[in-house]
Amino acid sequence: MLSLNTIDLPEIIDGLPNISGWEKEVLSVVNQDAPIFLPSTNIKLEDVNAVFAIALHMHQPTIPAGSGGSLISHLQYMFEHPNEGDNHNAGPFAYCYSRMGEFIPELVHQGCNPRVMLDYSGNLLWGLRQMGRDDVINNLKRITCDSTYQPYVEWLGTMWSHAVIPSTPIPDMKLHILAWQQYFAAIFGWEALARVKGFSPPEMHLPNHPDTLFEFVKALKECGYRWLLVQEHSVETINGESLTSKHLPHRLIARNSQGETISITALIKTQGSDTKLVGQMQPYYEAKTLSKQKLGSIFVPPIVSQIGDGENGGVMMNEFPSAFKQAWWDMMHNGGGKSGVVGVCGTEYLELIAAAGCKPEDYPTCQPVGQYQIWQRVSPDNCQPEAVEKAIAELKQINPNFHMDGASWTNHISWVQGYENVLSPMNKLSSLFHEKLDKLISTDTAESITRKSDYRQILLHNLLLQTSCFRYWGQGAWTDYAREIYQRGEHLLQA
């Protein structure tokens, strides 16, 4: 590990989350190829028939609703306004953010072999610190930084402020990814950041426009990510068909309108009622119905991958704790939790099958849904942006349901249609941000610029405006919040 371990990053600078200024150090730490789980895993592939991996997604947006309009976590707002809507759930939500720090040590000490993947937005982590909820952060630190529990827990990277990727301005994708990585390192340390190799896109929203997808995958790879989680119905085979090997890792192919291609490993999140499936530990019971499958020339245990909100709804708040514990007790009594059907972390599984001789080239390939129709119309030897846009326009004319908004786990909602009043300011603020700052950042003194508080303040507003909640939670107060953040960001840029 690098000597950077001795450099402690401040978590908060001038009242702002530390989301910029150490980009070179972050990229140096995350772009290392050493195995993460292989040296410590207690699972042997030959003893296992099938595996499952569950991830818990946690998020609370930042809103301008504190004292004097200050930026606070929506969780804080819930505590302060308990009689509005379901705000009475603030306490249970806060406990849900913390409880894995209790469940994992408890199960390990009982002789179980638990696994969990955690996906927390950057602004949720910042909000917990703003609220003085050090109890929650310390519980998470326990299972993240204590070597006793590291083999059982994997953090997944995400966009800092829960921006859905297809409608995020392309130049801001990497800013979100890096901001999350840096803030995570500030809380949990460089060594913990070096272990974050999987990525969880907010709302499982995968871009299907060729150029957006290409830039997203490129940014992920530049930021050291090895794999991402994708929703089953958001991808198709290269021939435009539904996936047939959804319990095997895939190679997601991204091809842009210039004809360039890039790829990254994808674990397939199967369809279904996400929170209910995770809350009742369905992936474990589904894995019990599976047996080894051929990948390349090797037989490997298939993987059932699932993610759901970690706090939202009665199932997660009330049923999940007992279901979670019961599943690991059941495994302990059937093979000691290390044989038959077992839980894994995503990176652990990929490292185990790689050690057995599987290569990414052996994985079945996939691409975002809808791309097959584009590439049918665009010849590989004439791959130009104009040809791709022409093909997209023709497809929209033939089929009114064809779109390049991407697909997500809330597929009945468009993140674009009807939200022009949020998207226009969002795109405008991003454009103003890059117009003013990109030339400065491209100079040799870029890092000193991104360490300045005024830069961090502008970046924060740019990223916050892209939070999906300002669209997902409907018109009214939420679009008002977005308008306020836009106006403050514009004012900062004009200063």
TrEMBL record:
GO terms classed as biological process: carbohydrate metabolic process
Naturally occurring in which organism (per UniProt): Dendronalium phyllosphericum CENA369
KW Hydrolase (keyword) present: yes
Name of the protein in its database record: Glycosyl hydrolase family 57
Lineage: Bacteria, Bacillati, Cyanobacteriota, Cyanophyceae, Nostocales
A GO molecular-function descriptor: hydrolase activity
InterPro entries tied to this protein: GH57_Enzymes, Glyco_hydro/deAcase_b/a-brl
Keyword line: Hydrolase
Keyword Mitochondrion included in the entry's annotation: no
Leader sequence segment: none
